[in-house]
Amino acid sequence: MMTSERFKHIIIKKKLKEAGFDGKYQPETLLSLYSSYRMNNLSLAEMPAKTPMEIEQKGVFRRYEAWKKEEHQLDFDDILCHAYELLCESEPLLKKLQERFQYIMVDEFQDTNPLQYEMMKMLSATHKNLFVAGDDDQTIYSFNGAQSEIILEFDKEFPTAEIATLDINYRSTSPITGLGNEVIRHNTNRREKTLKSTVLSQTYPLYFRAETTDEEAKLAAADILHKVQNGSRSFADFAILHRTASVSRAMFEQLTLHQIPFLSFTTVDQMFYNQWPIKAVMDHLRLALNPYYNDALPEVLPTLFINREKGMLHIKRLEAVGEQAEPLEMLESLGGLRAFQVSKLQERERLLKQMKPMKPKQAIKKMREAFYDSYLEANEAQAETMHKEGVKETLDELETSAGRFDSVLAFVSFVDDMVEMYKGMQKKTQSAKTDAVSLMTIHRAKGLEFPVVYLIGASETILPHSSAVKAAGCGDFIKKSNESEEKAIEEERRLAYVAITRAKEELYIGSPAQYAEKLWKYPDFF
Predict the structure, then answer these.
(1) How many CB atoms lie within 10 A of CB 333?
(2) Fewer C-beta neighbours within 10 Å, C or N terminus of the chain?
(3) CA–CA dist 391, 379 (Å, integer)
(4) Beta bridge partners of 239
(5) Are 250 and 213 a contacting pair, CB within 8 Å?
(6) Are 18 and 56 in contact (CB under 8 A)?
(7) 241 beta partners
(8) 310-357: per-residue pLDDT in tens?
(9) Run of H or E residues at 77
(10) Which of 504, 482, 502, 494 is closest to 525 using CA atoms?
(11) Cα 27 to Cα 8: distance, rounded to the nearest angstrom
C-alpha cells in the first residue's frame, strides 16, 4: 500500500520519463486528473483519448497501473475502486456487509464524491439506517470530485430522511458568525439556515486596504509581532489564509525576513519561486548572469523545444573533450536540430546578453514578450497544470516581486536567499511542536480553528478567482450568464465563508488596492 503522495509523484515522474514526457507534465496534475476520472467511476478504458494530449496522458496512466500490478501496490483510489467492484460483483459479500453494518454514519458528507456515495447507498440499501453529517456551505473540494448536489439532494434520494439543522456556533464570536452569514446568504443553491453564536463580543472583523500585496504582508507581520511581543498572543494563535499560492508570496517573504516561525505546509519545491512557471524564468535570469551555469539548463531547454536529456548529454560530451564555448552555443551542433531551432538558439543567446544589464522586472517582461508567454500558450500540457489565468497571475506576481530590485543579480540573490532561509526554517518548525504561525490555503484550513485569522488577497480575480468567472467583459463578478459560472462563483463564496469562520476571536480581511500593476476591486460578496 502506497501511503505517501510524494512516493506516488516519484513513480509518475519515472513513468513520464519512460514515456519520453519528462518535464512535459506535472505529476500532481496527472494524479489529480486520474483520481477525478476514477472517482467518477470511469475505468482506464473509458477515459477520453481523442486529443494527442489525452492519448499521452492515458499512456502514462497505463504505465502507472502496470507498475502497481507488478509491484503489488495499491493507492487510496484503488481501495475505493476495488471495494466498489467487489460490492457490484459479489452479491453474497454485499448482503453480508449489509447485515453486519446495520447503522452507517458518514462525517464531512459535503466532501463526498460519486463513487463513495454509490457505496454508501449500496451498503444501506436494505435497512436505510444511514446518518450523514455535513455542511453544504463548506463544499469546497469540487476539484477533488466532491459534488454539492450530493448533499443538497440527499433527501430526494432518501425521501424518508429527517433533517436536523445544527445552527449554533460554539467557536466564533457573534460578529464573525454574523459576517459569515451575510456572505453565504447570497448563494441560492444551498439549504437555508442562519448560524447563531454563543460567544458574544464587541470585537468586530476588520477590513484593511494596503496599496500592494507587499504592504499588506508588512502590516500583517507587524501586527503579529506586536501582539506576541506585548504578551497578548503566541505565534500559534495566528493563521494567515490565502486563496492562491501567488498571493502568499509577499507574506511568505515577510515572515521569513522577520524570522517569524511559520508553518506553510509546502515543500521547498512547492514554494512560489520554485513553481514550474517561475523556475524557468528564474533559471533564464541565472543563465543571463552566468552563461556557463549548467544547473539552469534543464529548465531552459524545454522552452527551446530541445529534449532535456539529449541536450545535457551533448553539452557534457563536448565539455569532456575540452570545448570552451558557452553551453547554448554548443547546442547549435546537436544532431537532428532543424534550421529554425538553431536560429531560436541564437536568438535566445542574444536575448540573455541583453537581459543581464536590465532591471529584473524589465528583463522578465522582455522574456515574456519574446517567447515565454507564447511558449506557455502553445504548451497545452503545461497549461493544464493551472488555469491559464493562474499561470498569468503567477508570472504577474513575479514581476511585482522583481520590481523592488535594481539589478538582476540583486533579485536572483534575494530569491536564492529566500529558498535557503526557508529550508532552515522548515527544519526548525518540523523538528518539534513549534510555536508558529500557520500560513495556508483556505482549502487546507477547513476543519481548523484559530484565535486570530488574517484573510489576505480578498479581491476580485483572486477571491473570487478569475477562473470562476468570465474573463472578458464582466464588470460585475456577481452577475452570471450560465449555470456553470453560477456554480463556480458560489463555490468561491463558500471558500470565503470557510475562511471567515476559521476565526474564533479576531478576523482581519485584507484587500490590496493594486496587484500586478492593476487596480483591484474588493469582492461584492463582502
Answers:
(1) 12
(2) N
(3) 12
(4) 438, 453
(5) yes
(6) no
(7) 440, 455
(8) 999 999 999 999 888 999 999 999 988 888 889 999 999 999 999 999
(9) helix 76-89
(10) 494
(11) 8
Task: Single out the residue of 255, 268, 298, 266 nearest to residue 280, CA to CA.
Answer: 298
**Residues in a beta bridge with 465:** 461, 462
Output the CA–CA distances (angstroms, integers) from residue 373 to 10, 18, 26, 232, 388, in the order listed: 28, 28, 18, 48, 11
Better-scored residue on pLDDT, 460 or 90: 90
For position 168, what pLDDT does the model report? 94
Amino acid 481: pLDDT: 43
Cis amide prior to 175 (ω within 30 degrees): no
Residue with cell 484573510: 455
Beta bridge partners of 446: none
The Cα angle at residue 504 between residues 499 and 509, in degrees rounded to 5: 45
User: Across the beta sheet with 238-242, what order do the strands follow?
Assistant: 206-208, 503-510, 450-455, 238-242, 437-441, 262-263
| Torsion angle (degrees, nearest 10) of CA 178, 183, 187, 191 | -20
In whole angstroms, give the CA distance from residue 84 to residue 115. Answer: 8
3 state SS for 34-56:
HHHHHHCCCCCCCCCCCCHHHHH
Q: Locate 439 and state its grid cell.
A: 500560513
| Residue partners of 180: CB distance under 8 A and separation at least 6 | 172, 195, 497, 500, 501
Write the single-letter amino acid at 151: I
Across the chain, mean pLDDT equals: 87
Q: What number of residues does the chain have?
A: 526
pLDDT in tens, 351-408: 999 999 999 999 999 999 999 988 887 765 554 444 556 678 889 889 989 999 999 9
Which of 29 and 59 is assigned the larger pLDDT? Answer: 59
Place of cell 454514519: 105
Per-residue pLDDT of 115-128, as tens digits, reads: 999 999 999 999 99
CA-to-CA separations, 131 to 162, 207, 340, in angstroms, rounded: 10, 40, 65
Count of C-beta atoms within a 10 Å radius of residue 273: 21
